[in-house]
Specification:
By secondary structure, this protein is of the alpha+beta class. The protein contains 18 helices and 10 strands.
Length: about 450
């Protein structure tokens, strides 16, 4: 592992600061911008060495790259620290393959007064900058030798899956076809946990990361498809393949123009034609990935083909698509319509099932939709609900595979005040009485409740 010196960190900070100033005055092609950015890319490559990624940021007001801190900063370093903190940034991860264009876009966002801490991550994604990411990923289950044999933590598995999907897509963005090992590692953990307790990961599929929609959507579809397959009683090998297909079903979007992917409004006919290519592009990518079963490529190709074969790719409508494809389609549909997008308000889980019923028999397989509804229960895990005590609670276990009545976490008391310590209760009768009953779903946005933080707690 190459050593990072204070001189390296100081030089990188100075180049960063110079770039932030110059992007306001000149285009990327101008030598005053291009040269320091090219030097910065080269310097970062040297510091990265054999590392998988490079971390920089600010800790207690001190700039750092990896473990090297500048405790006596010069004016340029101080200015960079102030720029980062003004945007609410305390850490940044740089990935192999970062380009002067990536750093130009990042520097331009730091220089832009209209970009706030709340919008920075979304602007980064909108610009299609995938080799620069805010924050530092935590060490997760499945990595390293020390964790082997320890109990798998669902929240860590979720983050592990996010990282595997993100790294896989980033490799493809950089023109490389990755091995399937990253994906296979997290699939092994996800399948093991699901076989032990089917609802463990299901709640995490309700997490919506709007700044990283493509990654979180892929993981959520992987979880929903895996859990439905387990609910149907499929064998372990099938669970592996269906989970993998869910995680990779949108991988072809790496080959679609970012301006179309991130378009805030309805796509034009031309744009939609381009977007539809992601299914066949994804299938071709998966076929080239080592250690990924052929059945996964088939499911990726057909996840928009629809049950009545009126979907796309049009040329594939006469092909045979099996159960895996239809399971991924059901999972994809549910997560898409329950997620907030720039052009769509999220649909509550109970309403989402009503929409899927209307699609059953045409777009979706009717029997699978009915099985999916049975699996999710009347109030799916992750639903926010009002009890007849007027308390607001989060459904944790509605699953008929485990219990007839939900278990919930009460978040707000009857007066609407947040509980300092949320209270776990079962709504199943206890000695002839029950704590409360659910009377209606509640929109988390209206209550300003971050469901994800409670599911990961």
């Amino acid at each position: 592992m190459s050593e990072i010196t204070k001189q390296d960190v100081q030089r990188a900070a100075m180049l960063f600061t110079a770039s932030i100033k110059s992007v306001l005055l000149y285009p990327l092609a101008h030598p005053a911008v291009r040269q320091p950015l090219q030097e910065l890319v080269g310097l970062m490559g040297e510091m990265m060495g054999e590392r998988h990624e490079l971390h920089l940021g600010v800790v207690e007001g001190t700039f750092f790259i990896e473990g090297c801190l500048l405790v006596a900063p010069n004016a340029a370093v101080t200015e960079l620290v102030e720029r980062l903190l003004q945007k609410g940034i305390d850490a940044v991860t740089i990935y192999p393959g970062v380009t002067p264009d990536d750093l130009f876009g990042f520097a331009a966002l730091l220089a832009n007064r209209q970009v706030s801490a709340d919008t920075f991550a979304a602007e980064l994604e909108r610009k299609g900058i995938s080799n620069v990411r805010l924050g530092i990923d935590e060490m997760v289950a499945g990595e390293g030798e020390e964790g082997k044999g320890e109990t798998l933590v669902p929240a860590a598995i979720y983050r592990d899956a996010l990282k595997a999907v993100r790294d896989t897509m980033r490799e493809i963005d950089n023109g490389r076809i990755p091995s399937g090992e990253w994906i296979n590692g997290v699939v092994e953990n996800m399948v093991s946990v699901t076989m032990e307790e089917p609802t463990t990961l299901l709640g995490l599929a309700m997490i919506k990361d709007y700044d990283n929609y493509t990654f979180s959507h892929s993981v959520n579809v992987g979880i929903l498809a895996l859990t439905l397959a387990a609910f149907l009683g499929l064998e372990k090998e099938a669970l592996h393949e269906i989970n993998t297909a869910g995680l990779l079903h949108d991988i072809g979007k790496t080959r679609i123009d970012k301006t179309i992917l991130n378009s805030p409004g309805k796509l034009s006919d031309t744009e939609f034609k381009e977007m539809k290519r992601h299914a066949e592009e994804g299938s071709e990518i998966v076929k080239k990935m080592k250690n990924i079963p052929p059945a996964v490529a088939e499911a990726v190709l057909g996840h928009h083909i629809r049950h009545d074969r009126t979907g796309y790719p049009e040329w594939a409508r006469e092909m045979h698509f099996g159960l895996y494809t239809e399971i991924v389609s059901v999972a994809d549909c549910y997560d898409a319509i329950t997620t907030l997008r720039t052009y769509q308000r999220p649909t509550l889980p109970k309403e989402a099932m009503e929409i899927m019923h209307r699609l059953a028999g045409s777009s979706l397989n009717m029997e699978l939709v009915e099985q999916f509804e049975s699996m999710m229960g009347e109030y799916p895990v992750g639903s926010l609900v009002r009890l007849d005590t007027n308390e607001i609670a989060l459904v944790l276990k509605p699953h008929p595979m485990e219990c007839a009545e939900p278990s919930v976490k009460i978040l707000l008391d009857a007066q609407g005040q947040a509980l300092e310590t949320p209270m776990l209760v079962t709504l199943a009768p206890q000695r002839g009485t029950r704590y409360a009953s659910i009377i209606a779903p509640v929109d988390p946005l209206l209550k300003n409740i971050n469901v994800a933080s409670h599911l990961l707690a």
